[in-house]
Design goal:
It contains six helices and three strands. It has about 170 residues and is mostly helical.
Length: about 170
């Protein structure tokens, strides 16, 4: 399109369409991976695939943190000027905001424990003590992962359950 001298905004519309298609494909691929590879691994008593998935999510959060942390105070004039972030008053306009952002929390969220247990074992944590225990094991495992990653990175990583899209609940 560029070589054919197509108008820039027309190219941007096409790029946005391609990005949307790739995002949709990525979500579907991830869902399939969870429903097959991760589920099979958990059914067989292994957590290798779950670890890979948690690593993927944690690394994406840490990458995003790095992007934001490399920004300067002058990129956030309102937040820095209002003292919203702890220690922001100690920074000058050209300083990175890393030292301020590190006080925050990077959260790994999950939704659908009942659906997960039903897909894995045929019933969920509200239907039997055994499934409640399985659910607690999965959540405890993910929470321990966040604790280990926090220690390793010296960052605050937390696990949250999202019961409704607008109401995360810390664990």
């Amino acid at each position: 399109m560029v070589e054919k001298d197509v108008y820039c905004t027309d190219i941007l519309v096409q790029v946005a369409a391609v990005n949307a298609a790739l995002n949709g494909f990525s979500k579907e691929l991830l869902g399939q991976h969870v429903r097959t590879c991760v589920a099979d691994d958990l059914r067989n008593g292994s957590s290798e695939k779950l670890d890979e998935l948690l690593d993927l999510v944690a690394n994406q959060l840490l990458d995003r943190f790095e992007i934001q942390a490399s920004k300067r105070v002058y990129n956030y004039p309102f937040l820095m000027g209002q003292g919203v972030w702890l220690d922001s008053d100690k920074l000058s306009p050209n300083d990175e905001v890393r030292e301020v952002l590190k006080h925050g929390t990077l959260s790994i969220g999950f939704i659908g424990l009942a659906e997960t247990l039903t897909a894995l074992y045929g019933h969920h944590h509200g239907e039997s003590d055994e499934m409640q225990q399985k659910g607690l094991e999965i959540i405890s495992y993910m929470r321990a992962y966040c604790d280990r990653k926090s220690e390793e990175t010296k960052m605050n990583l937390s696990l949250i359950h999202i019961s409704e899209p607008t109401r995360p609940e810390p664990i």
